[in-house]
Amino acid sequence: MSFRLLTVSALALGFVAAAAPLARAQDAATVERAIAVRDAALTSNIALDYVTQLTTRFGARPAGSKSEQDAAAWAADYLRAHGFQNVRIEEFPLVGWERGEGSAAIVGRNAQSLVAAALGHSPATPRGGVEADVVRFSSFEDLQAADSATVRGKIVYVDLGQMHPMQDGSGYGPHTRVRGAGPGVAAAKGAAAFIMRSVGSDEDRMPHTGTTRYVDGKPTIPSFALSAPDADQVSRLIALGEPVRMRLTSTARTYETHSQNVIGDLPGATRPEEVIVLGSHMDSWDLGTGAIDDGAGGAITVAAAKAIADSGRRPARTLRVIFYGSEEVAQPTPQTGNGGGVYARNQGAALEKHVIAGESDFGADRVYALRLPAGAQGSDFQKAATRVLYPLGVLASDQVETDGGVDVGPMGPLGVPFFGLAQDGTRYFDLHHTANDTLDKIDPAQLSQNVAAWAGLLWLIADSDVDFRAMRPATTTATPAAH
Questions:
Q1: What's the rounded Cα separation, in Å, for the pair 195 and 222?
Q2: Strand duo 354-359 + 271-281: pairing
Q3: Is 50 exceeded by the pLDDT of residue 101?
Q4: Lowest CB count within 10 Å: 7, 244, 359, 441, which one?
Q5: Are 361 and 172 in contact (CB under 8 A)?
Q6: Which three-class secondary structure state does DSSP give residue 477?
Q7: What angle is formed at CA 255 by the lines to CA 253 and CA 257, rounded to 5 degrees?
Q8: 238 vs 442: CA distance, rounded Å
Q9: Who wins on pLDDT, 90 or 476?
């Protein structure tokens, strides 16, 4: 899909003309400069350069691994080389996890190999593996309600059916709940191991990994995701009335290590103490190279900030790019991991000067909607932003941005509001957490549209005196779960 500016169309010309008086009420000069920054960003090659180098030089970057640490050091140098200031690396302790070797197979009657992947932070099987009969559940609630006698000593299998692809990714939540909490529920009922249909919308024979949760600071039971075709195979056998017995093996291990946040600033010209956070995460799962999740997010944010720096004039407020560490994995205690939480805690009183935060962590496909804090809907700022973003195919949304994302989310309960540039996630969960998450899946034209949308919006935010905190509703203590 081409993302040429649509201003040549009669519709766009009519919209811009109608919106111009409203934009001038915000600040005509700021809007015009945002448009210029947007247009220049469309031709920038920084985003593609960054994500190409990151995924080629370091490949997969599991949280706490040497590849994640080396990538962070390289990214800090990349920021410095592109004019960012106050570049620093913020380390924190982490329990790392290595997959090791693993296998899954039906044994005995109907014996056959299966394609599966161990879930993150699940423990190894005993030597020789776990062999047991399989008991299937079609919902998480059915597992919760099951009598322990029907589960004890067995391999619990949860199959919610195929995840539906949706533009906003809303089909993900019910499935990832099973991945995170399912092993703990099965373990409490005495299960020997846990398997589930992969959390993905594809039908490839590639399993989707992802993290499990610790329970009371302890790992649960060996846990695996089956690729979609293999999940179907197991479910069909059970539907035919066949007894299914399975053997699972895993040599996964945990180890003490550290992760880190990489932080770089483009200081504001007149109000540098006022900070706008542009977030993404550096770590990835080990099966692919983390291009979609989330090398692309870092590429988009650094390229957008660089487009503003290259515009010839600094905005009033500071732009802060953060590549967060350890977004993907759960941890035994709150004292380890979670780069977003580490950053928010370490800021202390300085967080009061964080005016707004946004996160890019949904791949590289096009942006289609702008979401702002409560109170901004219908404002002069939203109208100005619409003038800047509409030619890119980005519409203002009445949906309020409330949680920001996993990495910036911990700042929310501490008073920082969020903006969101919603991306088309229709194919995101075909690739997410699989071996298919590689550089070739990024469409350069859609990547450039993201950069242009971020750059144009950020100029408006950074060079304005809009008090987004005053628009923010009462805070909550909820933060989004890791994905």
A1: 9
A2: parallel
A3: yes
A4: 7
A5: no
A6: coil
A7: 145
A8: 39
A9: 90
**Backbone phi, psi, residue 434, to 5°:** -120, 175
Mean pLDDT across the stretch 79-90? 98
Q: Find out if CATH 3.60.21.10 is the number for domain 100-251.
A: no
CB 316 within 8 A of CB 462: yes
pLDDT score of 53 more than 50: yes
pLDDT digits (tens, 9 = 90+) for 358-409: 999 999 999 999 999 999 999 999 999 999 999 999 999 999 999 999 999 9
Give the span between the Cα atoms of 225 and 236, in whole angstroms: 17
Q: Please tell me the chain's helix, strand, coil percentages from 3-state DSSP, rounded to the nearest 5.
A: 40, 20, 40
Q: Which CATH superfamily is domain 6-97+256-471 in?
A: Zn peptidases (3.40.630.10)
pLDDT tens digits, residue range 424-479? 999 999 999 999 999 999 999 999 999 999 999 999 999 999 999 987 544 444 44
The answer for residues whose C-beta is within 8 angstroms of residue 327's C-beta and 6 or more apart is 63, 281, 283, 294, 339, 340, 361, 406, 407, 482, 483
395-396, strands of its sheet edge to edge: 395-396, 367-371, 420-423
